[in-house]
Fold this protein.
Amino acid sequence: MEVFDKVFKNCRLLDVRGGKVKKTDIAVKDGLIAAVGADLGAGEDMGGLYALPGFIDAHVHIESSQLTPARFAEAVMPCGTTTVIADPHEIANVCGMDGVDFMIKDAASTPLEVKMMMPSCVPASPAESSGAVLDAQAVKDALKREDIFGLGEMMNYPGVTAGDADVLAKLAAARGAGKPIDGHFPLGSGLELAAYAAQGVTSDHECGSADEARDKLAAGMDVFIRQGSAGKQLLDILPAVNKDNIGRFSFCTDDCHAADILNFGHIDHIIATAVQAGMSAADAVRMATLSPAEHYKLNCGVLEEGRQADILFTIDLKNFKPLEVYKRGVLVAKAGKALFTAHSQVPAKVRNTLHMPPLTKEKLQLKGAALQYALKIKAGTLNKEQVKIKDGLPKLCVAERHKNTGRVGVCALAGYGITGGAVAVSVSHDSHNVICAGDSDKDMCLAVNSLLPMGGGVCVVEQGKAALSLPLPVAGLMSGRPAGEVAQTMTQINEFCKTRLHVSVDAEPVMTLSFLALTVIPHICLTDRGLFDVDTFCLI
């Protein structure tokens, strides 16, 4: 009789293919599921707990958690997440390949399986001022590496549809290497979407409606339904899912803060939300396991013989909180706690990344198009729009922080509602220049300049005094502190922004601010060079 490394007895296994629950034993050998069936020998009695495959996040930027990969693993593995497809384009836009290499090495120090994509857009678009440039040759060289899984989201969709040579060369390199290509084409449709998908782009996580999801499926792309800290499209897209196409839908978080992970969960929370909305447990779990595993051709995502023994045990099929989590047959989390310790070794190459002069009030004067137009946050979305300027609006500024240029873009800001102070952050997608909102030039200068000695992070100022701050010394994006400490400080900062500075956005004030410089989310944004029209892809 075969000797197994481990046998889980008396399980209720959720079959994500057939949608049924069956009582069985599960045997593990050499990190793989060796047998599923009755009477597999002596082992651990699981007392009828449900056995589910480990959850997969189909698309995530670890940096957005404000945690290093090792600290991120500590936070998400107790939630049942055992594999993530990560795109490190945030740190790459600051530190180039030095940043990518740090993310790979740090992630490898944990049990979490991190499939690291090669950032395709550094900078995210030609309109952005980033700290590094990774051209087609750099991408081609990286895709030859075994520790680079595929090509990260191609955000420069105008470059694809316009036939930009460098953009097309990156896509060709990924196709030539036989590696997957992730997409990003908000509101894409018609011939432009067809041309985009024809370049080998196999996924999209930017759908805002069920109809848009159907368009992406028709173009040959799989859809990743995003439910993160800012982008929450789950309930809007679920009506597009049916028994015939469910294999082409997966869940992803994209950008999720540490506080949300600790307070609500990770992929487990998305599954529970889908079930509460009327989806069956088997279908919801399938979209977090088998669907992404099949999309990326991973040997996990289902509890079958020969698959990785990525298994979690939970008491019911309602909230999906794991009692135990196993990665390749090894217990890595129990009762909400990681059973491993993160030890991030942060090299000097990804520290001290704010290379900019102090901000002065003279740099905050409105000029050009900003004398006529304001940027308005569109409630409930990541989108922004252009409106006529009105008296009394606070200001928004973006200060270039990579190459000491001293460039500062300024405009009026509508829909944010800050009064009595300012908030500044060195996280602003995707080039991560320093972005600040406030109703006083003096407070804005203090908030921005307070970030310089800490190497980046978040600073809130009230009435001329620095009130709260969170240092993010790793590329100005991440902290090496435990998730609980980072989450507690960020929660205090966001609460302070809402209660003391009267920020009126529905989403997190800091997370909202960090997206206002992004040149690949419609319809308008602010860069260090000025107001930018995303639809026409030019400065206003």
User: Anything to note?
Assistant: The chain has a mean pLDDT of 96.
